[in-house]
Write a structure and sequence with these properties.
The structure holds three protein chains of three kinds. By secondary structure, chain B is of the alpha/beta class. Chain B is built from twelve helices and 15 strands. In chain B, 41% of the residues lie in helices and 20% in strands. By secondary structure, chain C is an alpha/beta fold. Classes of the chains: A alpha+beta, B alpha/beta, C alpha/beta. Bound molecules: thiamine diphosphate, iron/sulfur cluster (SF4) (3 copies) and magnesium ion (MG).
């Protein structure tokens, strides 16, 4: 069981995290951050294993992972 | 204290060592090679760092790095090499780092020749590199001044966090002259900006890039304020007989040596002559000219170039007609007799 | 639940000016994590280049100095000569290191300066608007090679890690890539080895990092990583060239 927390202020919407997540936890949201970027958010929350792949690829260190 | 005989380039090196310089970076070029070799030898003796760099570009940036870490660092070169250092000098000025740069000038432009020259006045005094910055420029005219001014250069650099240039020429560099190697009591300037690793304090940064709105303007204002302070406090100049003289010869460095002899010759023949020898080329001793109210006085500027400092004299004297110029570029050295003839013609 | 991934001490919690999906951000994180894991933050001095990473001093909570374009290895040489106990590293792009500053690079490497170089090879000049770099691939379209880099005119892309690996002064030279998770982990290991080499006083260490510039590769961030894997590593083989 894992959990990711995404800081919307840091997310630039590059979607690399979505690409590397093996459990398809993450999705683009319809929420804008202060830069007008559609940030990513966890959707299938229960699927997250806390593997940290998303965090390791995030160029903006927007993701914290808990397990 | 007894005098010893040394070549000018070595005198600069010894002064640097005595002033606490332990980091020297340089690339060979005539006519300053004795200085590089001297530093190589002396740094070994005193446990300092000597490094022959791959280029003048590298040398000035090594100085930048050593200075950023708090060392009294120096590099030296001659005209073509000084051109290569301009990028680094501009950064050092922008980052407000102390540094001492020695230019033992030779003939130019381009590769020119290796004869003594004063052709880099504009480059040293008016910029050389890009941006609104100033170098403190010191112009020694004898071996004793090579020693004293080099030592002073390190203090000024630290005090103002600014690069300082020693503007010498091939004649001064090569000349053997007795010199007193006085003990130098260097100023100890606190450097709370030095990079050492952010231990028990906030991290520091040294930069010349200011992208935030208005930040670069503010940084430039701060620099200008510093330059005004330097102008107010650090002008140095030697004058002789200027209140009584009808003709005042203006010269610095090697041409000032010859000028002194020519003024003496004129006086012996009953001509009222004097001289102004700027020691700081920047800040220029403007007040000496501005305070000289007698409009009948004539200035004769003698330079080993095609006329560079003469523009500053014209600016300060306020009346171009009162200023005449005698000089040539390309390794020409003025003769005492010829300077005397020019003085005579002006009376 | 326990936090298993978060921002490391040396990486400031701030917005960066990098484009979405830019490799500089990943590389910054890896460098910061290595510094913290080795416990050397308080004696480390970084040198920021002129390039997209010019503002790196806002992102690392370290003592940092700027250097003129291409001159970081000379600045590092000067710094290291003052206090050899300091850990000094440069962070340079391909224009900075392999074009304008190659002389400084080669000579610092050949002297065996005990410094670490993080070399970001993104096959482009990012900061100035996507011009050809010495590492641009043949056929790659850039602002200054509108029909693609032509080898007859510009030669082949420069292989920095291999070239420097030949020099006796170099103790560690490796090429890694930010193309996927396993390679990002290998990149971190290489950076750690490079810093460790400096801590052990072994001499010059360099890590060449193949890094995405989605903006001037005209690709999405996801496509950019695929480009590294498929095209870039063909020309720039990954591996250790000196250890
Ligand atoms: C002397 C000098 N020449 C040119 C430039 C302009 N310039 C700034 S960054 C750069 C190239 C940057 O490319 P690279 O080093 O690959 O870094 P990147 O932006 O790709 O990370 C150039 C040419 C400069 N700042 N200074
Ligand atoms: S931690 Fe792993 S499973 Fe969870 S969101 Fe990130 S990549 Fe997906
Ligand atoms: S990788 Fe980071 S910046 Fe990119 S979309 Fe995911 S959370 Fe946002
Ligand atoms: S231009 Fe390229 S290298 Fe520069 S920040 Fe954008 S993606 Fe990164
Ligand atoms: Mg690049």
């Amino acid at each position: 069981m894992g959990k990711v927390v995404i800081n919307p202020a840091r997310c630039k919407g590059c979607k690399l995290c979505i690409e590397v997540c093996p459990r398809n936890v993450l999705v683009p949201s319809s929420k804008n951050n202060h830069l007008g970027i559609y940030v990513v958010e966890p959707k299938k929350v229960g699927e997250c294993t806390g593997c940290s792949r998303c965090a390791m690829i995030c160029p903006d260190v927007a993701i914290e992972v808990y397990r | 204290m007894s005098k010893i005989l040394m070549c000018g380039n070595e005198v600069i090196g010894e002064a640097a060592v005595q002033a606490g310089c332990r980091h020297y970076f340089g690339y060979p070029i005539t006519p300053q090679n004795e200085l590089t070799a001297y530093m190589a030898r002396r740094m070994e003796e005193v446990g300092g760092v000597f490094l022959q760099s791959e280029s003048e570009l590298a040398a000035i940036n090594m100085v930048l790095g050593a200075s950023a870490c708090g060392a009294r660092a120096m590099t030296s070169s001659s005209s073509p090499g000084i051109s290569l250092k301009q990028e680094g000098i501009s950064y050092i000025a922008g980052m407000e780092l102390p540094a001492v740069v020695v230019n033992v000038m030779r003939g130019g432009p381009g590769l020119g020749n290796i004869a003594p020259s004063q052709s880099d006045y504009f480059q040293a005094v008016k910029g050389g590199g890009h941006g609104d910055y100033r170098l403190i420029v010191l112009a020694p005219s004898c071996s004793q001044e090579l020693y004293d001014l080099t030592a002073l250069a390190f203090d000024l650099a630290d005090t103002y966090r600014n690069p300082v240039m020693i503007l010498a020429d091939g004649m001064l560099g090569q000349m053997m002259e007795p010199v007193t190697l006085k003990k130098i009591n260097s100023k100890r300037v606190k450097k709370p900006w030095v990079l050492t690793g952010a231990k028990n304090r906030p991290a520091r940064m040294l930069r010349s890039l200011f992208l935030e709105a208005g930040a670069l303007e503010k940084h430039n204002e701060k620099l200008q304020e510093k330059y005004r302070r330097i102008k107010a406090k650090e002008v140095r100049c030697e004058t002789y007989n200027i209140s009584r003289a009808e003709v005042i010869v203006v010269a610095y460095g090697s041409s000032a040596r010859l000028t002194k002899a020519a003024v003496k010759m004129a006086e012996e023949r009953g001509i009222k002559a004097g001289y102004i020898k700027p020691i700081t080329l920047w800040p220029f001793p403007e007040e000496v000219f501005i305070n000289e109210k007698d409009k009948d006085k004539r200035y004769l500027v003698v330079e080993m170039n095609e006329g560079q400092m003469v523009e500053d004299v014209e600016r300060c004297a306020g009346d171009r007609k009162r200023v005449s110029f005698y000089g040539h570029a390309g390794g020409w050295i003025p003769q005492v007799e010829d300077i005397f003839k020019r003085i005579k013609k002006l009376v | 639940m326990k936090k298993v991934f978060g921002r490391t001490r040396t990486l400031r919690d701030t917005h960066t000016h990098y484009c979405p999906g830019c490799g500089h951000g990943i590389a910054h994180r890896l460098v910061a994590e290595v510094i913290d894991e080795l416990g050397i933050r308080e004696r480390t001095i970084g040198i920021a280049p002129v390039g997209c990473a010019v503002l790196a001093y806002y992102y690392w909570d370290l003592d940092i100095c700027e250097a003129p374009h291409g001159r970081p290895p000379a600045v590092a040489t000067g710094m290291k000569s003052v206090n050899p106990k300091n850990i000094v590293f440069t962070y340079q792009g391909d224009g900075d290191l392999a074009a304008i500053g190659f002389n400084e690079t080669i000579h610092a490497a050949n002297r065996g300066e005990n410094i670490t170089v993080i070399f970001i090879n993104n096959a482009i000049y990012g900061m100035t608007g996507g011009q050809m770099a010495p590492t641009t691939l043949c056929g790659q379209v850039t602002a200054t090679t509108p029909s693609g880099r032509n080898a007859e005119r510009y030669g082949q892309p420069i292989h920095v890690a291999e070239l420097l690996g030949h020099l006796p002064g170099v103790t560690f030279s490796s090429r890694v890539a930010l193309s996927d998770i396993p390679n990002i982990m290998k990149t971190k290991q290489a950076i750690k080895k490079a810093f460790q080499a400096q801590m052990d006083g072994k001499g010059f260490s360099i890590v060449e990092v193949l890094s995405p510039c989605p903006t001037y590769w005209r690709k999405t961030p996801v496509e950019a990583l695929k480009f590294i894997k498929k095209d870039m590593t063909k020309i720039f083989p990954l591996g250790v060239f000196k250890e």
